[in-house]
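Q: Convert this sequence to structure tokens.
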Amino acid sequence: MRIPVEDRLFSLVLALLATETGLLKAEILSTVRGYAERYDRHGGNANLERQFERDKDEIRELGIPLETVESPDRPGDNQALRYRIPKGQYDLPDEVRFTPDELALLGLAGEVWRGVSLSEDSRRALTKIRGLGIEPREPVIGYAPRLRVRDAAFEPLRMALDRRQQVRFQYLKPGEVAPRRRRVNPYAVVLHEGRWHLHGLDVDADGLRTFLLSRIVGPVEILASTSFDAPPEGVQDRILAELDELRLSNAADLAVTAGSDAEVRLGKRAVRGDEDAGVIRLHFTDVDAFADELAAYGPEVRVLTPESLRDAVRDRLRIVAEAHAATGSEAGR
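A:
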């Protein structure tokens, strides 16, 4: 039976917390859930040992203080090493405490992402949450929603970011007729206004750039032989702040049809509105991405300002009209 990775890590953390003197590798592999099911007492556990080495690294990445203790009788003997997690170092600071309900909500947040492209982050978070030793309330944690990440580029970019490896992809900028190849050191992947963005160093342009994942054409190639230094600390917060600043600098006045889907959906994001005139004001980050969204509402929304956004929406509607006209002509032949 295949044991999920998060269950194996959780079982390992509990086992290492429960021992004061530490556990030998053989004891871990033969008794801890996730290893014991495949442990061979007659030898041939090389794959399990490699898995344990990877799990040790992941546990340490969680910030869990995994200690290695040498045997005084067998110094330098790796088979005699003992592993443990000092409970006093793992416990939360005295000023940080979670109630069962709060822990349940944290677990629920992790479950939202489970099984999709953010499963690596989710798995790490859930392992740490479950290792705190507070039992969540079942009625809350029993509800497990799922969130779907649509951009196919997301998962390979996250993998490359975690490994600090360069990526290569084709990127189609608005107004260009063909995509161009980009080589990027990925620094952060962030969600802003419902769209995923990649921020990193464009190697060929030798400068920092932010890319919309939806404009990446085709597969993302991870260049395994490459590596780069860790990005600046706080890069995610910085790029989100820059995107917010860009959004606030752009405002659009829209005339929406009363009672329409456009009025309901766009009205929720409005920063100003005039119900009598049927006009709302919204901030936006990207003219072309916002034009794509507005064009989908058809006649339910009309752009008053700015002119660049109005022209972009008209261009999209014109393309749709011409495509329908062409289809009608072919059908009439």
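The first strand starts at residue 23 and ends at 24.
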